[in-house]
Structures are given as structure tokens and as C-alpha cells.
Design goal:
about 130 residues; mainly beta
């Protein structure tokens, strides 16, 4: 599964991290193995959250995936069972990969996962600065 967002460790487990409208830090998960009585599904959506203190989060990173197709770097936007939706703002990359042009500076299309080498770009983040 493609990961894209901010993640951090809370009590030894990795969770997705978000900040709510009141500037509270929250951990989020849909993983049943990480859910305990302290996490709640406020909207009955299957997404469990909990407000945590910033100093309780360690190893916080921003993960941005991108793909390499035939030596060309592309953005990975979405994922289906066997395909990725990829995008490029480069005329040369879009043309080389035969992606449909959807506007002046955007080429967008679905490609088989088997043709894409996925790379996760990880940037460390200080949770106190979120």
C-alpha cells in the first residue's frame, strides 16, 4: 500500500499524524491491530483517532512517494489494485511515457504497477513544529 503523509511513533507503534482545527495533534489509524480503548471512531467511518501531546511522538517523518518509469521521475497520485495514477509537469516526461495531456502543464494517466519503481522520499520532522 502506498504511504503518503506524516507518520510518527506513539508508544512504539507507527501512526499517521494530523493536526486538527484547534491545533491538537492526533494519531490516526484504520489498522485493527493498533486500536485500543483510547482511540475513538468519532464518525463511525472506520478511522480511529486520539489527541496526543507532541512530546509523546517520536521518529516523525513526512513521506512523499514518487515513481520511476523508464528512467523518468513522476508523481504518484492514486493507487488502484494493479495501477498507479501518475502525473508530470514536464512535456518531455509526459511525451516519453505517452501520458495524456490534461492541460497546458499536466500529463496524467494510469500505468501498471509493474512498470513503476516506487521510491518513498522521507523527511524528518520535529513534532513540536507541526
Amino acid at each position: 500500500m502506498l504511504r503518503s503523509d506524516i507518520f510518527g511513533k506513539y508508544k512504539g507503534r507507527i501512526y499517521e499524524i494530523t493536526i486538527d482545527m484547534e491545533n491538537n495533534m492526533k494519531i490516526m489509524t484504520e489498522d485493527k491491530d493498533k486500536i485500543d480503548t483510547t482511540l475513538e471512531d468519532k464518525y463511525n467511518s472506520g478511522l480511529y483517532t486520539k489527541v496526543v501531546k507532541r512530546n509523546e511522538i517520536t521518529d516523525c517523518v513526512s513521506i512523499v512517494p514518487y515513481g520511476i518509469i523508464n528512467g523518468e521521475k513522476v508523481q504518484i497520485l492514486k493507487e488502484k489494485e494493479d495501477k498507479f495514477q501518475v502525473s508530470s509537469a514536464s512535456l518531455l516526461v509526459g511525451s516519453n511515457l505517452k501520458l495524456p495531456r490534461i492541460d497546458r502543464d499536466t500529463w496524467l494517466g494510469w500505468v501498471p504497477k509493474s512498470e513503476v519503481r516506487v521510491i518513498e522520499e522521507k523527511t524528518p520532522i520535529n513534532p513540536q513544529e507541526l
